């Protein structure tokens, strides 16, 4: 009789535990489902406005406006399905650019150099993994104006022969417009010819033999890789516990039936 009581009490306890765990898991699941707010319908993107408020891109914008390339880019946004991806160097990158001077370029060359900073299609950051399989990639400037992309553990490098730049942040990325900040002005070989051989030993470039996409298990650099969200991890634990307690409940009530 006493043993029966123990079983009943413990089975009630298990039922309570299990239902509260279920309530918890439902709550945390639904909250983790609703966290990525549904993307609102893409607003009209005014590139001039975006670049003037988004960061220190005033030199880039001044060049884009001076050559009317900003209008070419805006037309691509407004009138195509492909959209656009723009690589915006900061003012500081223009200021520190010494090797090939931009001052002696013809207007046509300057236009090409600016269009070299864009791709005539929208690419999310994740798309660069695939894009890096298609090197060399033709830029908005067309023809010989190509860039090579490498993608390793979420880091995107952009090579032009002259330049080994890195995507340093995402300014805007909603189809059809992506604007990414790059840490250098991109210098096309199509204008400046082959780059001079590097005199000092160049700082270790990202090894080209790292297979892109070997993210799982590889000892990647400690970087800005997003870690799996804590909320999904904890809801996983709660679900596991609630399944566990369900089986415990089955076992206990099975034992109870046997006992009775
Ligand atoms: C885009 O933004 C610029 C700067 O804010 C403004 O001068 C221009 O009128 C805008 N163009 C359109 C089409 O809204
Ligand atoms: C730029 O052009 C001027 C004259 O057109 C010339 O004197 C000067 O050396 C050029 N500078 C460079 C860096 O090519
Ligand atoms: C990957 O790139 C190729 C072109 O190089 C394209 O045909 C294919 O659709 C892309 N795949 C994805 C998943 O974006
Ligand atoms: C770009 O990639 C292509 C193909 O892998 C290669 O032939 C070319 O030399 C690369 N160019 C630069 C500037 O790295």
TrEMBL record:
Residues 194-206 have a biased composition (Pro residues). Residues 191-232 are annotated as: Disordered. GO terms for cellular component: plasma membrane; side of membrane. Keywords: Cell membrane, Glycoprotein, GPI-anchor, Lipoprotein, Membrane, Signal. SMART domains: FAS1 (SM00554). It comes from the Eukaryota. Residues 207-232 have a biased composition (Low complexity). Pfam families: Fasciclin. It is found in: Cell membrane. Residues 44-186 form the FAS1 domain. It is a lipid-anchor; GPI-anchor. Belongs to the fasciclin-like AGP family. May be a cell surface adhesion protein. This is FAS1 domain-containing protein. It comes from Nelumbo nucifera (Sacred lotus).
